[in-house]
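re: that chain from earlier
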Amino acid sequence: MAFYRKNIGGLHQVARIAVGIAVAVAAFAYLAGAAAWLIVLGGVGFALTGLVGYCPMCAMAGIGRGDMS
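^ sequence. v structure.
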């Protein structure tokens, strides 16, 4: 039983995972200090929304897949 309804599609999920991982790796490689870790956490969070298939901000904005039940 899911506690949420997926609101992003397959291609959107793949793009979120790729961009999130790329941002996290780039921040880890090229930045230092607390700002780097905050950007890494943001990238990881972005990738996790892709893995799960649910974006809270999209849900609040009313953006989502209407064809899912």
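Helices lie at 10-30, 34-52, 56-61.
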